[in-house]
Amino acid sequence: MRSGDKTATVASLLALASLGVISARQLGALGHLPDLPGEVFQSDELTTSEDSKVLGLPDGPLGLGSFGLTLLLVSRGSDLTKYKAAFDLLYALSRSGGTYLKKQQLCGWCLVALGASAVSTAALWRQE
Q: Where are the transmembrane segments (predicted)?
C-alpha cells in the first residue's frame, strides 16, 4: 500500500468515527454531543436542524456511506479514489462553510470530518 493510501485510510476512518457520532445524535441514539468551548460551537443544534438534512435524510448517515465508499476505493487501489476524496472534501466544506455563513455556528464533530477529508485528499493527490 502506498503512503498516500495509508494516510487516506486513517483519515477516512477518523471521518467515519466522527460521522458515526453525528449519526447517533441525528438518529436519536445520543441525547447530547459534547462540544468545544465557545458560543460558536453548537453541534447539538446544528446536527438536529432541518439544515442538516439532504433530501429529507440526515447528512450523518449519508456521510457514513460516502466515506465508506472512499475507504473501499482506497483499499482497492482505484485511480478514482483521489477524485472521490476531493468530492468528499468539497461536500464537507460546503456543509460546514454554508452553515457558518448562514448561522455563524460550527459543529466540532463536523470539523473533524472536514479536516480528515482535507488530509485524505491532500495525501491522495500528492502521491504518484
A: 106-125
Percent of the chain with pLDDT over 90: 93
Q: Report pLDDT digits (tens) over 42-61.
A: 999 999 999 999 999 999 99
Query: What three-state secondary structure class fits 1?
Result: coil
Q: Which residues contact 104 (CB under 8 A, 6 or more apart)?
A: 40
**Which residue, among 62, 60, 25, 61, has the nearest Cα to 44 in the 3D structure?**
25
In angstroms, the Cα distances linking 16 to 37, 38, 113, 116, 127 are 23, 25, 8, 9, 23
By CB atoms closer than 10 A (0-12, 13-18, 19+), residue 111 is middle
What are the residues facing 58 on neighbouring strands? 53
| CB-CB contact of 42 with 105 (8 Å) | yes
Confidence of residue 3 (pLDDT cuts 50, 70, 90): confident
Query: What is the model's pTM?
Result: 0.92
